[in-house]
Amino acid sequence: MIITSARVIVTCPGRNFVTVKIETDQGLYGVGDATLNGRELSVASYLNDHMLPCLIGRDASQIEDIWQYFYKGAYWRRGPVGMTALAGIDMALWDIKAKAANMPLYQLLGGKSRNKVMVYGHANGKGIDETVDAVGQYIDLGYQAIRVQSGVPGLDSTYGISKNTLFYEPASTDLPKEDVWSSHKYMKFIPELFAKIRDTYGYDYHLLHDAHHRLTPIEAARVGKDLEPYRLFWLEDAVTAELQEGFRLLRQHTTTPIAVGEVFNSIHDCQQLITEQLIDYIRTTIVHAGGITHLKQIAALANLYHVKTGFHGATDLSPITLGCAVHFDTWVPNFGIQEYMQHSDQTNEVFPHDYKFEAGHLIVGEKPGHGVDIDENLAAKYPYKRAYLPVNRLEDGTMFNW
Ligand SMILES: O=C(O)[C@@H](O)[C@@H](O)[C@H](O)[C@H](O)CO
Ligand SMILES: [Mg+2]
């Protein structure tokens, strides 16, 4: 089955998405997500100018060889742009192979290990009361796992807080918004937030929290210890993770489960975290870590060390990534949880899909392939709009992590 065309489709139904579409001489096509929030056109150019010309004429069934060709052939390996571009091609090729085999992708991976995939939603509020209410809204929607993010007293804005408490999109079309951060104010406040939520809703629901790369290892250890009474499902991105051994300090001090990895783009970013059991959940995502082919390697390594999957699933990952993730989550033996920030109706119209949300879980579809498509005519109605993620400074003006 020979690749006859490979194109990049950039569309902006409320936010930018980059999609790879690969067509073959047998009439089958596949689509893959290649969206990198705030750097979309870098990936589009990496694909259009450097990768896609090398695809034409290749055998679409040779997924592994094509993956190795682009990984080793680039010379300049790894990195978010290159691995996101490779992921887009990889997802499209797995889509084609599953369609050619006339089976849903999870069957090709190894069949069902579960019939449904537990997900978590994002409850957020400007302060404790609004956040507590938002958690109640997610419970009413049927979620059993809820991520909790709140504004911090004394800070004008922070990560994860949106006007709409049930939807969160961090990118904005002007130049990067500047947030101001204080770890001191945050660390003082966060135990009070979770105490209030547990007092209100008890312990039947899984609560998750994202510290979004803002603490030092000892600060993260303090937050982990302070939150132990509230039995979190995980504390995410507590520390920036370039220094993988930095997590040893955090690990020594707290039994709060640790999750990290949404910004990782290869197994090398998390090998030490996994093999030293410094984390409990790996958050690498199919679109940013080289696609299904590479995620299989990461999940297999994690499985040896009691580490479970907890894939990133924010609104800036397209429904194609979510569709592939639900197939992967349905198969993978060491599944943990799947992030599920529901996309807007506009986005779902551009990306029709067959996965379904039911009572706090996602149910995989049975269509051949990964079950997601792109409506190219509709996509063409939403031209690209440059957008940036915010940046973050400390109160004294020091540039910090967002
Ligand atoms: O856990 C998460 O979903 C967050 O960390 C994301 O919202 C992240 O900030 C965005 O995906 C960045 O584009
Ligand atoms: Mg996160």
From TrEMBL:
Keywords: Carbohydrate metabolism, Lyase, Magnesium, Metal-binding. It catalyses: D-mannonate = 2-dehydro-3-deoxy-D-gluconate + H2O. SMART domains: MR_MLE. This is mannonate dehydratase. The keyword Magnesium applies. NCBIfam families: ManoateDhtManD (NF043051), PRK15072.1 (NF011654). Pfam families: MR_MLE_C, MR_MLE_N. Residues 128-257 form the Mandelate racemase/muconate lactonizing enzyme C-terminal domain.
